[in-house]
Amino acid sequence: MLSLVVLISGGGSNLRALLEAAEDAEFPARVVAIGADRDADGLDLGEEYGIPTFTVPFSSFPDREAWGDELLAQVQQWEPDLVILSGLMRLLPARVVQALSPRLLNTHPAYLPEFPGAHGVRDALAAGVQESGASIIVVDEGVDAGPILAQERVAVLPGDTEHSLHERIKTVERRLLVQAVLDIANGNLELKEQSRA
């Protein structure tokens, strides 16, 4: 049984998908803690599902490194098999990534390597593409540049707004994330250590 710590900044829709999947006794993973970098709405899911939560507010620290050190300490006390960034809208310091990778996953609302960064959906619309997508990756020290574990195309429809496209992408992201966790737990997807330059 894999233990997961999920880190969020918002409503936690991907987190909810994992929690719902884990309600099935056969699902081989459980969320053991939920963390956030702010007072995020998704923390309410901890109360709903009886899962401990923690908050490491970025604004409480003098810099990103100090914030990252405290976040890492909070995560590591749960000894998770996987750490999942589920809409955490903050770049992790390199030493946090090094400590957790390759067991550090992220979802991204684009078909990587297309449209990396914080505005993947907006950037896809601005580029006028006919397809975007969703990706699940191993986090490395680049921006959305780590090994791709799963991805799927999502059509851009006439009249799409950033919101409407993102909602359709999120549906795919949730399914891909749950499947990736299942595949890792069942040994069908292997997380490899990345070589350090």
From TrEMBL:
Listed SUPFAM superfamilies: Formyltransferase
Catalysis performed (reactions): N(1)-(5-phospho-beta-D-ribosyl)glycinamide + (6R)-10-formyltetrahydrofolate = N(2)-formyl-N(1)-(5-phospho-beta-D-ribosyl)glycinamide + (6S)-5,6,7,8-tetrahydrofolate + H(+)
Site residues, Raises pKa of active site His: D144
One GO MF term: phosphoribosylglycinamide formyltransferase activity
Residues noted as binding N(1)-(5-phospho-beta-D-ribosyl)glycinamide in the record, renumbered to the chain: G12, S13, N14
Stored InterPro entries: Formyl_transf_N, Formyl_transf_N_sf, GART, GART_AS
Binding site for (6R)-10-formyltetrahydrofolate: R64, M89, R90, L91, L92, N106
Family matches, as Pfam families: Formyl_trans_N (PF00551)
Keywords: Purine biosynthesis, Transferase
One GO-annotated biological process of the protein: 'de novo' IMP biosynthetic process
Pathway in which this enzyme or protein is active: Purine metabolism; IMP biosynthesis via de novo pathway; N(2)-formyl-N(1)-(5-phospho-D-ribosyl)glycinamide from N(1)-(5-phospho-D-ribosyl)glycinamide (10-formyl THF route): step 1/1
Any single GO CC term annotated in Swiss-Prot or TrEMBL for this entry: cytosol
Annotated catalytic residues: H108
EC number: 2.1.2.2
Its job: Catalyzes the transfer of a formyl group from 10-formyltetrahydrofolate to 5-phospho-ribosyl-glycinamide (GAR), producing 5-phospho-ribosyl-N-formylglycinamide (FGAR) and tetrahydrofolate.
NCBIfam families the UniProt entry points to: PurN
Stated name of the protein: Phosphoribosylglycinamide formyltransferase
The encoding gene: purN
